[in-house]
User: Fold this.
Amino acid sequence: MADAKQPNRPLSPHLTIYRPQMTSISSIFVRITGNSLLVSTLLLIWWFLAAATSASAFASANYVITSWAGDVVMVLSLWALWYHTLGGLRHLIWDTGRGLELEAAERMGWVMIIGSLVLTALTIFCF
Assistant:
């Protein structure tokens, strides 16, 4: 059977000719942000456990979280939290049967992107 001649069929479309849709991109980012929130949650748990353990443990954990890299991780985590929240709200709307039209779904994807950036900036600068 292994020597059977392969039929000459066209290959499926490659990524270079496939145009990703807003719904697929936003859905993928909801999954990515959900998983990345686990990392920042583990960092915060480490920070709390270090605070409960000793002053030196807290000093090292606090140094990592308040460093420039820690600031970047925390700001990205804040954005991920807002994006993931807006993605959950989008799914609640979809569960009611609304917003499933192509134009509405694409508009909701843009609202998720722009809304999460605006909410992140408001959270950083207003609180």
